[in-house]
Amino acid sequence: MSSEIESRAVAAYLGLALGDALGATLEFMTPREIVAQYGVHRRIVGGGWLRLRAGAVTDDTTMSLALGEAILACGGQVDALSVAQAFDAWMRDKPVDIGNTVRRGVLHYRQTGQAVVVMDEQAAGNGACMRVLPVALALFGKEEAHVREACRIQAQVTHNNPLSDAGSFAVARLVQGALSGMGLAPLHAQVIRPLIEEQPVFAFRGRRVENPSGYIVDTLRAVFQALFDNDSFESSLVDVVNRGGDADTTGAIAGMVAGALYGLEGLPGNWLASLDREIRVRCTEQARALLRYSPQFQAVGPR
Fold this sequence. Notes:
Layout: H1 2-24, H2 31-38, H3 59-73, H4 80-92, H5 100-112, H6 133-138, H7 144-155, H8 162-179, H9 184-198, H10 216-228, H11 233-241, H12 247-262, H13 269-274, H14 277-291, H15 295-300
Helix pairs in contact: 1-11, 1-12, 1-14, 3-4, 3-14, 4-5, 7-8, 8-9, 8-12, 10-11, 10-12, 11-12
């Protein structure tokens, strides 16, 4: 059982990076532009507005790794000051891209020393959700209230908004449910339905979300449609990134959930071979290190 959990955790982290790398090519493109240039985009080839080399990732993956390092440095705990310091160091390293809300949050910490930004109606972006995976792994098996609070702590270093909080917590719960072996139907019943009851704007059935923006509601409605209307890692990721818009982030979020859901065997071998080797190693090692703090993993015991 523990080896299966570890495999799914590694697949979740690699899935995040794969979705990021696949989607980065299409970021800010419309579906019509994608069809004209690629037909259906299904290979990791780099390029895009950031002019990435094939297999390179963006801030979605590197900020997740920074958060994971902060959690590991605190013995598996999510501490706002440590997270803010990690994000500050990450930004000083000049990441290939950085969202406006994230930038403002890090600058707020530099200027004030305060690790939490004030609540902002305009801060309902997807930047907190895209990096939530390390919290889901380290706190796998913790009580729901504890996980929600940890998600909130890491989010509000840059994004202090109820929709951001709710979306980030839901994605963490989807990952944790998939780690424990849940399929799509129970994940919908136990995670998506309560989310929609709490925040009805996340209801995703109806019109297909195309060209999703960085608004957390648009992002997650597109991700949920792709996850629950497909039955494999590859089809889910190809579906969501070909909608264009904020495609690296929709790809990263869908990838972390689908990776946990379908496991390592579900990840396309040609995509893994294309992924930057250093990123592949860092994601694998950090997934395993974070999981060591998981109460559920510890209860089963390493094999």
